[in-house]
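Fill in residues.
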């Protein structure tokens, strides 16, 4: 799928999460209290 290729071109999920607003084409990223990131679909 296309978003898998994008991850290689644009950098890791962690890098994108820090630079851009926490949203992706596939779903929404939310930062957890412990600093980890969860990707929720739908």
């Amino acid at each position: 799928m296309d978003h898998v290729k994008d991850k290689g071109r644009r950098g890791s999920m962690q890098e994108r999460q820090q630079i851009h607003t926490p949203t992706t084409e596939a779903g929404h990223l939310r930062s957890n209290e412990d600093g980890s990131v969860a990707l929720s679909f739908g």
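DSSP finds two helices and two strands in the chain.
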